[in-house]
Structures are given as C-alpha cells and as structure tokens.
Design brief:
4 helices, four-stranded antiparallel beta sheet, Nuclear Transport Factor 2, Chain: A, 32% strand
C-alpha cells in the first residue's frame, strides 16, 4: 500500500494524473462509466488501500462482501493492501457487455510481497446494479500477454 499524490500519474497506468483519473471514483465523487474504468479504479483502490471504494463497487452477492460488514471487510482488506505493493497493471483485453449484461476484463498485476516479486492474472466479470457497474467475480487465469 502506498500514498499517491493527486498530481502523480494514476497507478492504473492510464497516463493521466490521479486527480483526473481514478481519484474522483475513489473519493465517491463519480462512478466509473465502463467496466474497464471500474476495474482500473479498483486496482488503484488496492494500491492506496481505499477499502470503501472496493466494498461499494463489489456486487452484494460476491463472497468477498456477502454477509460481511463494511467494517470487517475494511479491516481484512486493509491488512491485505498493507502486505502487497502493487506496481503495475496491464489490461490485456476488454469484452463489452454481452446479452446477459456481463462485461469482462482480462488483466495482469505485478506486485511485491515482502522480498518476492510476482504477477497475478485474472478474468474479471462486471454487471450493472442499479445502473452502475460493479465487480461480480473473477477467476485467476494464465498470463496471456
């Protein structure tokens, strides 16, 4: 977990300053208007430890939040964010919303955990809830870059 200043490049890798990219979503001022933008904002939330954004952008039926109080989620997720230093996000492919209302994003994150450097790839699914994109589930995948 690290602090990102508002004028620094956004950790999501967009090339835009944090204050113009993911910060408004993390601060609850805006809601990402695409599944990819939501995925990028969630990555940035993990980078800076913004557990409130992660909680509110996760579908309530997802096992990570179902039956868990926002406080417990925040405690558990903050502990994870402190243990992991996410260093890079690569978006491999984005699938638009399908006939079932599901959009998908395949990405890879690079991270450090202690002295170990590693990567994790995931195919994430997003759906609209009350008109807003939320994370429904993800499945780790082999890196395809």
């Amino acid at each position: 977990m690290r602090k990102i200043e508002r004028n620094e490049p956004c950790p999501c890798g967009s090339g835009v300053k944090f204050k113009k990219c993911c910060a408004p979503a993390l601060e609850g001022m805006t809601w990402p208007d695409t599944a990819e933008a939501l995925m990028r904002s969630r990555y940035s939330a993990f980078v800076v430890g913004n557990t409130a954004h992660l909680y509110r952008t996760t579908h309530p039926e997802n096992d990570q939040v179902k039956g868990i109080s926002p406080e417990q989620f925040a405690q558990d997720t903050l502990q994870f964010c402190k243990a992991i230093n996410f260093t890079k996000l690569t978006i491999h492919q984005v699938w638009p919303e399908d006939e079932h209302g599901i959009a998908r994003v395949h990405f890879t994150t690079e991270y450090e955990a202690g002295e170990k450097q590693d990567t994790m790839s995931e195919l994430s699914e997003f759906a609209r809830l009350n008109g807003r994109w939320v994370y429904t589930q993800g499945e780790e995948s082999a890196h395809q870059g």
